# Entry
Amino acid sequence: MLRRPLGQGWYGLPENLKNLVLYEVMSKKYVLFAFGVALFLSLGTFLFFSRSAVFILTDETELLLYGNYRALLQTVKAAARLLRPVYMVSVPQVSDEALQRDYLEQKLPERSIIITPSRFEQASQGFKNRHPSSVVLILERQYIIDYKSDVKRAAEIAGPLAKKTDQTPGLLLPSSMDDTLRETLKQTFDEGLAEKGWSHGSILIDEAREVPSNLSSILTFPTNQRLQNASVPIILFSSINDDFLPRSVIAVFDDSFWPHIAEMVVSYEKNVKMNFNSVLRTRNYRDNYIKNADN
# Structure
């Protein structure tokens, strides 16, 4: 029987030589792999920063109420989805439009995508007039929060509370809201309540009158300061940070445009009009309230 000579590996190669060859082959593979990863990351970074950046115009008051960290987190999420830089720019709160425009000249590159609330529209348009390659998107004018569908979602919270307490939910809408829209929202809210098993509808509360205390919940906007110390569970449409909300708030629908930065840019690029839904961001308030009510 033929036996392999001592000190030799496969194909007659010495063991130490074979190990050396394998080491060199594997080393080359790792080097090539590392080079490929580095090249991919370099190209990706180059393409990322070569695209027009998105700038969200805001101010100190909005960042205070919304939360600077929350706003920053939304820009990071949008950048990851859009594969382009997204920044927020805090514009000085001055009435002089020229000063605001000069500030934008200092902060923004000539080719920018600007998303701005209407209060900075004139300054943004002035920037665009000087730099025609820029794009200006006006929040309140070009994008809409679909409150009708949001109110029906809110009924999914108010309905079970109404059944549980056997009390009617309240609806406190801003007096500045169009009468037709007010009636539409109430009808939609009542339809949502019925789908959750509460067929008695809701009470539309007049802002000028005292808020009833025998309600299962109140759906409202942050325009009525009388609800700050209310004991009735509140379903609130607001972008305000949780730290500034009373404990009676059991659910918050974030109706700001911050969570929709990426969708706004995509809708512009595709020339498609989009409506957005508020983001229910504190559902744990509702869950904790219902849990405590069971005890």
Residues 51-142 form a domain with the Rossmann fold fold (CATH 3.40.50.2300). Residues 6-11 have pLDDT under 50 and may be disordered. The chain is about 50% helix and 15% strand.
